[in-house]
Amino acid sequence: MSSLCLFNPRAGRAKEVVPFLREYGISYTILTSAWSNRLEDSTEDVIIVGGDGSVNGIIQQLPQHVTVGILPCGKANDFAYALGLPMSAKKAFDRIQRKNVHSIDLVSINGIKMATGGSFGFVAHVCEPTRYSNLGNAVYVFKTLQLMLFGYPALHTININGQTFKNLMLVCIMNQSKLARHFTLAPGAKNNDGVIEIGVMKKPRSFIGHIKFLLDCLKGGPKYDYYVRGKQFTITSDDTISFNGDGETLTRGKKFDVRVVPKSLKVYQ
User: How far is CA 147 from CA 12, 100, 193, in A?
Assistant: First the structure.
């Protein structure tokens, strides 16, 4: 059996991990869209040196029998944090060597897989690429304040399994409790319970209302206008909207089939 180590040089802290890889003699392949061509029948695990976006790109093509190990070096590393992995490359590699395998759920959105969580609306705007990306994790704080001060488009009309909502700040779809490390968007969400959690929040009328939302997220979770748990949802919009998940824009459209894919990813934890 063999391992394949995929390195994303564009990940936020990628340069910090290179000395470790060299010291331990770990050979790696630069992560590209054609990475799956390097898989062999004997490949037992794929070691991802990157962040949430790297994980997302790989799980789209990963055979179900292959186990994922992570050396986290992205901006947010939400997936690694949810798994309880250390941020140190050496300590994270020690976890991989223990071969302690857990199976977790993924979320499918129009057939595109997601490991962590994401949203339509406000959080999607926060995660959009920006020229300030070199700020690391602080870029999310910067973008949040920028949107709160200067505005962003509301979600006009959203329908979730037959229920209609108007003038929304966001619709969150969560497979774990937190995003951007500190913000709790779904306090009860777990990536191994076989369900998805969705929260709907109307757009606050003021800057103070947005501040309250952020403080609630920091203190344990927002007070949503609608909150539901389930295995499958159909979400529609009057306008074309984007969904951002795992820190990436995953899909755009007016209709979204959202469903849990139970125990579909094996990870070293």
Answer: 23, 42, 34
